[in-house]
């Protein structure tokens, strides 16, 4: 599969179902795009909307939350709460300008390696089609500070006649 | 403005009675501000001071915030209809004890737009769209019941207008507004439903919302605050009123109110016995998510 744009997807997978499902996809050698970065969480109910916002802020193109099917939650009701929470958040993100497609909540059981693989493939394609995010939640890339031994700091460049100060040399 | 002198008188009499009988140790109400025309919160501890209490259409503050600050005390609080919804939310969330809180409810004629030294006849937008002028919880009620008239416009019109804009314009709209935020947290401090002892935006470990005063950080702050108020915001609009840079915060909160109403058919603060929508669930509901 070739894409014009390689999206970065953050996946919050519940330890008991979805993570085991992803594991099964691996052990059965079912392939799925490497665009997903998986974070294991105890339960889909653990996923605070703040985690999702933070992922978006750090530049994620999409966020997937996967948990147990309704009725199968290890903690009995975590996924039900998650469902209500993200049903609201999804609408709200759309209101701010982050497309609904970029936040998904899915049910993946421990035996659904294939479903997980299909889901990630589908989501990657969909998000690639949307392209990079256009909203302002994303934090602009920061230049890494260049560390020099003491006493060898470069002199700050002189300001040029009232114009905006040029960025201090450094970075890549 | 609507004549409300008798309300002032009734509040004063009640406050005097409650304080002198020792039933409450504090009455939270309104008094005339130093500019002589608007109102400010008043804290009356002695029966002889009850005369400074007032009520008129400039009494805009939601005093529920002070009920939390003085939690544990037996107190009386003057509350407009919408403020009583906030009090109900606080009772529901076990932040204040109903038995220790004497609510002087007001059949509220609505409050007007005012700023320091100035006041007018124009009702605040939240009062223009208000359809519940009667308090939901009270021990004593003042003011004549107000006839509820059906609205001839959609209260959520502003939200729907923004929703209908193309994505780029919505992004530009919010960027313009969040860019102006100075992170003074006045919105949070004025909000009676924001009572966490350690707010998530000020938490250092883990540091979820960073210190930089940049749009992404400010946006996260506003979004997470709006989310924390989802299904709890009673639309008193204090946040927007106190915002020094005029960010239309009601558009954030009303979006959630609209969603909560549409998806769960819930309005906060009407009945403290009904569970809040995000604290409960229906096993078989279809919310268009999860599959």
Q: Explain this structure to me?
A:
The complex is a heterodimer of chains A (172) and B (291). By secondary structure, chain A is α/β, with parallel strands linked by helices. Chain A has one domain: 3-Layer(aba) Sandwich (Rossmann fold), CATH 3.40.50. Chain A is built from 4 helices and 4 strands; from the N terminus they run E-H-E-H-E-H-E-H. Chain A has helices at 18-27, 49-57, 78-96, 113-130; strands spanning 9-14, 36-41, 62-67, 103-107. In chain A, helix 1 packs across helix 4. Chain A is globular. Chain B is an alpha/beta fold and 291 residues long. Chain B folds into 2 domains: 5-142, no CATH class; 157-279, no CATH class. A 5-stranded mixed sheet of chain B has the order 2-1-3-4-7. A two-stranded antiparallel ribbon of chain B has the order 5-6. In chain B, helix 8 packs across helix 10 (249-264). The longest helix of chain B has 16 residues, at 5-20. The mean pLDDT of chain B is 92. The chains are: A alpha/beta (172), B alpha/beta (291). Chain A binds chain B through residues 49-50, 53-54, 57, 70-71, 77, 79-81, 83-92, 95-97, 99, 104-107, 134-140, and chain B through 162-163, 167-168, 170-171, 174-175, 178, 200, 208, 214-217, 219-220, 223-224, 226-227, 230, 255-256, 259-260, 263-264, 277-278, 281-285, 287-291.
Features:
heterodimer; A: 172 residues; alpha/beta; Rossmann fold; 4-stranded parallel beta sheet; 4 strands; globular; disordered C terminus; B: 291 residues; 5-stranded mixed beta sheet; 10 helices; 7 strands
CATH architecture of chain A: 3-Layer(aba) Sandwich
State the total count of DSSP E strands of chain A. 4
Average predicted local confidence, pLDDT of chain B: 92
Rg of chain B (CA only): 20 Å
Q: Identify the overall geometry of chain B.
A: globular
End-to-end CA span of chain A = 32 Å
By secondary-structure content and strand pairing, the structural class of chain A works out as alpha/beta
N→C terminal distance of chain B:
55 Å
Helical content class of chain A: 25-40%
- Provide mean pLDDT of chain A, rounded: 86
Shape of chain A: globular
Structural class, from helix and strand content of chain B? alpha/beta
> In total, how many domains does the architecture of chain A comprise?
1
Largest sheet strand order of chain A = 2-1-3-4
Tally of DSSP helical segments of chain A: 4
Q: Kindly report the oligomeric state of this protein.
A: heterodimer
């Amino acid at each position: 599969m070739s894409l014009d744009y390689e999206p970065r997807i953050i996946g919050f997978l519940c330890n008991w179902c979805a993570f085991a499902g992803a594991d099964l996809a691996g052990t059965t050698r079912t392939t799925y795009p490497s665009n997903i970065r998986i974070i294991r969480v105890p339960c889909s109910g653990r996923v605070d909307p703040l985690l999702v916002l933070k992922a978006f802020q750090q530049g994620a193109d999409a966020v997937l939350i996967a948990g147990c099917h309704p009725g199968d939650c290890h903690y009995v009701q975590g996924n039900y709460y998650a469902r209500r929470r993200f049903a609201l958040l999804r609408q709200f993100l759309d209101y701010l300008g982050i497309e609904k497609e970029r936040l998904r909540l899915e049910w993946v059981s421990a035996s659904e390696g294939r479903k997980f693989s299909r889901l990630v493939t589908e989501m990657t394609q969909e998000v690639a089609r949307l392209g990079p995010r256009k909203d302002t939640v994303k934090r602009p890339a920061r230049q890494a500070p260049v560390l020099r031994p003491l006493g060898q700091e470069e002199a700050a460049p002189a300001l040029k006649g009232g114009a905006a100060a040029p960025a201090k040399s450094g970075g890549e | 403005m609507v004549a409300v002198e008798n309300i002032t008188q009734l509040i004063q009499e009640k406050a005097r009675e409650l304080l002198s009988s020792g039933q409450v140790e504090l009455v939270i109400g309104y008094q005339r501000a130093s500019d002589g025309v608007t109102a400010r919160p008043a804290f009356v501890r002695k029966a002889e001071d009850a005369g400074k209490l007032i009520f008129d259409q400039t009494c805009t503050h939601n005093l529920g915030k002070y009920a939390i600050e003085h939690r544990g005390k037996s107190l009386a609080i003057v509350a407009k209809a919408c403020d009583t919804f906030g009090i109900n939310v606080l009772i529901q969330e076990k932040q204040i004890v109903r038995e220790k809180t004497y609510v002087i409810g007001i059949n509220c004629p609505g409050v007007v737009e005012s700023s320091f030294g100035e006041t007018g006849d124009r009702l605040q937008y939240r009062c223009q769209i208000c359809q519940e002028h009667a308090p939901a919880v009270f021990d004593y009620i003042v003011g004549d019941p107000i006839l509820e008239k059906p609205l001839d416009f959609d209260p959520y019109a502003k939200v729907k207008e923004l929703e209908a804009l193309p994505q780029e314009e919505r992004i530009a709209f919010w960027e313009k507004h969040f860019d102006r935020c100075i992170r003074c947290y006045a919105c949070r401090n004025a909000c009676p439903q924001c009572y966490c002892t350690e707010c998530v935006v000020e938490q250092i470990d883990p540091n979820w919302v960073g210190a930089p005063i940049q749009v992404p950080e400010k946006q996260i702050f506003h979004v997470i605050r709006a989310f924390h108020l989802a299904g709890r915001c009673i639309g008193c609009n204090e946040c927007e009123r106190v915002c020094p840079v005029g960010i239309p915060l009601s558009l954030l909160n009303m979006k959630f109110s609209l969603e909560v109403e549409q998806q769960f058919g819930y309005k906060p603060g009407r009945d403290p016995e009904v569970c809040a929508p995000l604290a409960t669930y229906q096993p078989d509901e279809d919310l268009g998510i999860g599959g």
